[in-house]
Design brief:
With 236 residues, the chain is of the alpha/beta class. The protein contains 8 helices and 10 strands. Homodimer.
């Protein structure tokens, strides 16, 4: 069974967007995964197709209504649908490569794209939505975040990347950032490829790459490096 994604959004025209190109686009054409964009406004009950209202207790902005969104979710997830229901939200748990791999190994996902000031908490609770964040910043809506999540997942589906090892050797897969890469020409503006990479000694090359990955992680993501060191210590 291919990976099946359903996106609930006020802007279905934003999909597939970038996912219609390159590896993800070719995989979509082959049927390695499927994508449906559902217009939330189709489930509004008034002639203006209203989906939001003022926040209870006052305050700025508008809130996506629970009753309207619940109807859209129920339409997209018939009884027995095993797919997780995700809400792209800046207050959600950070998206990690481990979560991406788990999603790629599953049947798909139903992704809710929030807008306005937020989503009525009652529908989050009633429909068991898993809030997911792609970073500590605010977007104008959940659509760009949904595209990011789907891109991360789709590239890990079987057959999407030409070389499956490519996915196993990237940043975050081992708990470290990825080592530097080089290719021809040998010399570029006075900078040469590190000699060890042209030595043919695969053991030394592996050690160098590991050392560079640890160095970069310690410099740029000390939080990851501490976790990596802790995990190494626990395996001794």
């Amino acid at each position: 069974m291919s990976f099946s994604a359903t996106v609930l959004t006020l802007y279905p025209e934003m999909f597939p967007g970038a996912l219609g190109h390159s590896l993800a686009g070719r995989a979509l054409e082959r049927g390695d995964w499927s994508l449906e964009a559902v217009q939330i406004r189709d489930f509004a009950t008034d002639r203006h197709r209203t989906v939001d209202d003022t926040p209870a207790g006052g305050g700025a902005g508008m809130v996506l209504r629970a009753d309207i969104l619940a109807k859209a979710i129920d339409h997209a997830t018939p009884d027995g649908d095993p797919r997780p229901k995700l809400l792209m939200s800046p207050r959600g748990k950070p998206l990690t490569q481990a979560r991406v791999r788990a999603l790629a190994a599953g049947p798909g996902a139903v992704i809710v794209c929030g807008r306005f000031e937020g989503v009525d908490q009652r529908v989050i609770d009633a429909r068991d939505l898993e809030e997911v964040s792609i970073g500590d910043y605010i977007l104008s809506g959940g659509e760009p975040a949904a595209l990011v999540l789907l891109d991360a997942v789709v590239r890990l589906l079987p057959g999407v990347m030409g070389n499956d090892a490519s996915g196993a050797e990237e940043s975050f897969e081992s708990g470290l950032l990825e080592h530097p890469h080089y290719t021809r020409p040998q010399d570029f503006e006075g900078r040469s490829i590190p000699e060890i990479l042209t030595s043919g000694n695969h053991g030394r090359i592996a050690d160098w790459r590991r050392g560079e990955a640890e160095r970069l992680t310690a410099e740029r993501r000390p939080d990851l490096f501490v976790a990596h060191q802790t995990e190494k210590g626990s395996k001794k």
